[in-house]
Amino acid sequence: MSDKRKPAKILVRRHSLITRLTHWVNVAAISFLLLSGLQIFNAHPALYWGSTSTFAAPWVSMTAKNEGAGMVGVTTVAGRRFDTTGLFGYSGKQGAREARGFPSWATLPSYRSLAAGRLWHFFFAWVFVTNGLLYLAATLLGGHLKRDLLPTRDQLKIGHILHEIATHARFKFPKGEAARSYNVLQKGTYLAVILGLLPLMLLTGLCMSPGFNSIAPWLVEGFGGRQSARTIHFLSASGTVLFVVVHLVMVVASGTWNNIRSMITGRYAIDVEGGAS
Amino acid sequence: MTVRNGTRRNWLRVAGGGIAGLWLAACDRLNSDQNVQATLGKAEGWTMKAQRALMKRTTALAQEFTEADISKDFRANGSISPADAEYRALSESGFANYRLVVDGLVERPLSLSLAELRALPARTQITRHDCVEGWSSIGKWTGARLGPLLEKAGLKKEARYIVFHCADSLEETLDGTGRYYESIDLFDAFHAQTILAYAMNNAPLPVAHGAPLRLRAERHLGFKQAKYVMRLEAVADYGQIGRGKGGFWEDRGYDWYAGI
User: Fold this and answer.
1) Distance from CA of B112 to the nearest CA of A (A)
2) Which long-range contacts link A22-30 to residues 24+ away (Cβ below 8 Å)?
3) Domain assignment of residue B208, yes or no
4) B244: domain range?
5) Would the CB atoms of B43 and A123 count as touching at under 8 Å?
6) Parent domain of A209
7) Shortest CA distance to A52 belongs to which of A241, A229, A259?
8) At what angle do helices A226-253 and A198-206 cross, to 10 degrees?
9) Nearest-CA residue of chain A relative to B65?
10) Does some domain include residue A277?
11) Hey, are the CB atoms on A44 and B131 less than 8 Å from each other?
12) What is the rounded distance in angstroms from the CA atom of residue A197 to the CA atom of residue A199?
């Protein structure tokens, strides 16, 4: 009964220096981009589809309306109406509420300043792009993509994928040798974010630029027009936030300090059955 | 148990609020730091250099649309009915006495009536107006091409920018710096789609959209499209005009390039 040997912990090299460095630069860049992006959104808190703004019928809008009993924040999405007082449309401390799309705690700066929001956004857009290109070059040239990110043939079998989903849903994570590499859900998610979501953020962001649109008009047309590109920019930012939330939940659920250490020092502890290794 | 849970919840709320408050204060403090502002502002130069390098390799015409794409709800922003006395007088006489002055670093200063402007080489274009706030509207513009007009005046070789002095005061100030103005460089001044529009959607330019004359520099955001244009001044630099940043909104913290 008591002779069950405790598994031994060994430290393996998990993340290369370039991965760790670009990860944290990306954390900073995306944080500033998100907060300043919401500041920019607040200058016209409405979204449309197509080339132009159909002011009378936006797809999404956040407004403050006087409803007799007082001001309320109203958010509409595809014709549906939600009372979002205190969060979207009308927010702030009791007694000092104001009309604004996103609340002050979600924007940079906290007070309304489109000019300042733009300064932060376009500076960190350059940081994001430079950092992203550095990461992609290292990933492609250094073999990180093939070695760590592309799923193996066995991982792509439908039975394996279903099994991974079932164990993840119960917050059971691979142990021992299996924890040395990413599982198929991790690989799929990271690939979708690195090669899909984040490049989409950049491309739709470029389509906001009248200057860039004169250089590559086919790109903004490809997204269905400038207002569609703006809406997709907002949706992919929302997707990025959703990814970060799930990512943080998974970090906590699968060992907070071990994960954070591996992204700082590169060393990741795994349990090895039987001790010797 | 409930008491303890309640206390914990309150503690969490206070801690959460405290952290959020500190974060906001830190961000706002960073934002008001002059060095931080100067560093962030460098990105405008990088963006302009990158875009100009690519523009020189392509035709770099802003997208043009069809009659069917024209917005019926084209939004009028900024000044929509200037209260300035000089402008009111012009407007009440149907702009019969309007003259566009072209001066500064030019060989032959000009003073042109609307009829004379209409006789100059013109261009009609259906383009999308992208406001810095984020919205877009499509309109059809007809106007005198700025390039040939500047050639007619003959730019002196020191001239680097064209400043557009406008009739509207968007802000009440004691020193007159609330008067709208804008500036573009010669790269944009001589672009094929840069025009001084006197017509919008097949009709004379309405007051709300800048009657009798507005700039269309189609590779820039809306605030660059100066309305109620009274005078073009060719200058070597714009540091002595307004508050020195090259435009009404530039003087109030916006970027001069305005290409994104």
Assistant:
1) 31
2) A22/A131, A22/A132, A22/A134, A22/A135, A22/A138, A23/A263, A24/A263, A25/A127, A25/A131, A26/A128, A26/A131, A26/A132, A26/A135, A28/A124, A28/A127, A29/A124, A29/A127, A29/A128, A29/A131, A30/A128, A30/A240, A30/A244
3) yes
4) 62-252
5) yes
6) 8-45+113-272
7) A229
8) 160
9) A51
10) no
11) yes
12) 6
CB pairs under 8 A between A and B: 138
Residue of B nearest to A117 (CA): B31
Mutation to test the A interface, candidates B34, B39, B40, most A Cβ within 10 Å: B40
Q: CATH number of the domain that B180 lies in?
A: 3.90.420.10
**Is A53 in the B-facing interface, judged by CB distances under 8 Å?**
yes
φ/ψ of residue B24, rounded to 5 = -60, -45
A138 and A72 in a single domain? The answer is: no
In this complex, is the C-beta atom of A34 within 8 Å of any C-beta atom belonging to chain B?
Answer: no
* Chain B environment of A50 (Cβ under 8 Å): none
Report pTM: 0.93
Please give the Cα distance from B83 to B229 (Å, whole number). 15
Q: Structural domain tally of chain B?
A: 1
- One pLDDT digit (tens) per residue for chain A, 277 residues: 444 566 788 899 889 999 999 999 999 999 999 999 999 999 999 999 999 999 999 999 999 999 888 899 999 999 999 999 999 999 998 888 999 999 999 999 999 999 999 999 999 999 999 999 999 999 989 888 888 999 999 999 999 999 999 998 888 888 888 888 899 999 999 999 999 999 999 999 999 999 999 999 999 999 999 999 999 999 999 999 999 999 999 999 989 999 999 999 999 999 886 544 3
Report yes or no: A114 at the B interface, CB cutoff 8 Å: yes
* A97 shares a domain with A188: no
Q: Is the same domain home to A118 and A162?
A: yes
Tell if the CB–CB gap between B54 and A215 is shorter than 8 Å.
yes
- A8 in contact with B, Cβ within 8 Å: no
In the predicted model, is pLDDT for residue B147 greater than 90? yes
Residues A195 and A258 in one domain: yes
Domain boundary among A101, A126, A145: A101
Would an 8 Å CB–CB cutoff place B61 in contact with chain A?
Answer: yes
Cβ-Cβ contacts under 8 Å, B246 against chain A: none
Q: Does A60 touch chain B (CB under 8 A)?
A: no
A235 and A133, same domain (yes or no)? yes
Inter-chain contact B51–A215, Cβ cutoff 8 Å? yes
Together in a domain, A75 and A159: no
A210 touches chain B (CB under 8 A): yes
Query: Could you tell me if A33 and A143 lie in one domain?
Result: yes
Q: Do A122 and B43 touch (CB under 8 A)?
A: yes
In a domain, B27, yes or no: no
Q: Domain of A153: which CATH number?
A: 1.20.950.20
Whether A106 maps to a domain, the answer reads: no
Distance CA B77, CA B132 (A): 11
User: Could you give the CA distance from residue A199 to residue A178 in angstroms, rounded to a whole number?
Assistant: 30
Instruction: Classify strands B161-169 and B179-185 as parallel, antiparallel or unpaired.
Output: antiparallel
Chain A residue with minimum CA distance to B130: A210
The verdict on residue B78 lying in a domain is: yes
Inside any domain, residue A1: no
| Chain A residues within an 8 Å CB radius of B257 | 211
Judgement on whether residues A192 and A257 belong to the same structural domain of the protein: yes
How many domains in chain A?
Answer: 2
